[in-house]
Design goal:
The chain has about 70 residues and is an all-beta fold. A hairpin with a 4-residue loop joins strand 1 and strand 2.
């Protein structure tokens, strides 16, 4: 990212938890800006699962995709 002069940002709009599966969905606006200042915007979702190891929560799985949550 640094070598290519890119800037990447994400701002969440929606946060959902499914207690029965432990899945978490974070959906929001992603923006990538190149060295010339051209910007690409999209809706992106981070779908995550967690586990607890030694009393510490850890990310067990993560899936990133365009668009809203896939339940």
């Amino acid at each position: 990212i640094k070598a290519d002069g890119l800037s990447v940002s994400f701002a969440y709009d929606q946060f959902e938890v499914a207690p029965e599966t432990g899945k978490v969905w974070v959906t929001g606006s992603a923006e990538t800006r190149n060295a010339r200042g051209e910007t690409q915007r999209s809706v992106r979702t981070y779908e995550m699962t967690f586990k607890v190891v030694g009393y510490r929560p850890m990310v067990d799985g993560i899936l990133v995709y365009e668009g809203g949550p896939r339940r």
